[in-house]
Amino acid sequence: MKKLIVLLLVVLLVAYIYHSNPRVIDDLTKKAREKAEGIDSGNENPGNDNGNSAGTNTGEKGFSGSGWAGNGSEGDVYIGEGFGAVRVNSTYVLFLDRNDDGKIDAVYLDTTGDGNYDTKYLDQNYDGKTDEWVTTFNGEKSYAWDLTGDGIADVYDTDGDGKVDAWDINSDGVIDERDVDGDGNPDLHDMDFDGVFDEFQGGPVLASPENETAACPQTVEDAYRLYVQAYNNVTKLQAQYNDEPSDELKEKLEEAYGKYEKAKACYESFTETESGTERENITGELGGLMKATLSTNGSVGIRFSTGEIFQTLEDWEKMDIALEPWCVDYPAILGHYVDIGAKSLEELTVGDIPASGYPAEEGAMEVVIGHVYVNRNSDGSYTAFTLVSHERIGDCGHVVEIEYRNAGR
């Protein structure tokens, strides 16, 4: 909403300036190609190459030189070498004609007043309509593209990882589908276009964590929907808490964790009888005892068969388990594993490894020192592991040491 208001103010201001100075558009588009190339190559502070250009911080230094339209010293419009700027409050809006056709095809906004152009409206096919939006927030970029030519974004890359993860199906400016697990397929849907994902309304509602008699949904589809909803709620609240910690958010997080654990247990009650029952029994011996240290600040996950450690959750598809940055006292590990109780990992045999009960979808839960867990790995093998030590770092950081033994397929 803030950006929309700023944009409307810009439009009104440009109209007024053009009325009072009809040549301003010609001045703005003069020699813009070189300046556009400099900005699009990654320069967030354009125009600091000579005395007649923008300062490195538009919020403080402004523009210097003789480029002011009107009285030549200061005003609402500045004409620089290959660019033009319009003052809005304490910052400026930058306009460019990147292909020298006499039409503005790029608008750069500094929405925070820190001197960096964090929002860009681009007409990439030069048809007079914005078809790409780029926004930078806390150092991370997000993108949106118009595929239909109506000037409204249709697909989004909200985390800047190069993958489309959100869709506006009916071109009303509101996201209707979102991919939350990074597999390229939508997990959340708003098929009635009311602005609320269907998974977050209607259907089964999970009772509060303290209600031990809460009923589990009757179908695996409803159980899975509930499980996804609970997991997404945890990650959303966790992101909010990381940005602005508060006691209220911490309380909501703890409640969300409780609901997630119940939803996960409910879903696994369906999948435990549907997975792992067709494989042959494991034969042979368990491998030797191995050790690994995982940290949410790096070394976040491991592939058991090779012992390779991975640094970020973006490589989840290559891992077997990963440490989650949950804002709780206990460590939570993501994987496809089951808890087989308090046992000695050194004395464990192949016969102790369950033939079924492994979750079909990855999930995270609390791991306890002294218990042994068996993970069904991505290559079809099995690994027994146990938690040796745990250290909490800050609100949401964790470091754990695990021991593990690999088994065959």
Automatic annotation (TrEMBL):
Annotated segments matching region Disordered: 36-66
Biased amino acid composition, Polar residues: 42-59
Name listed for the protein in its UniProt record: Calcium-binding protein
Species of the source: Thermococcus indicus
Top-level taxonomy: Archaea, Methanobacteriati, Methanobacteriota, Thermococci, Thermococcales
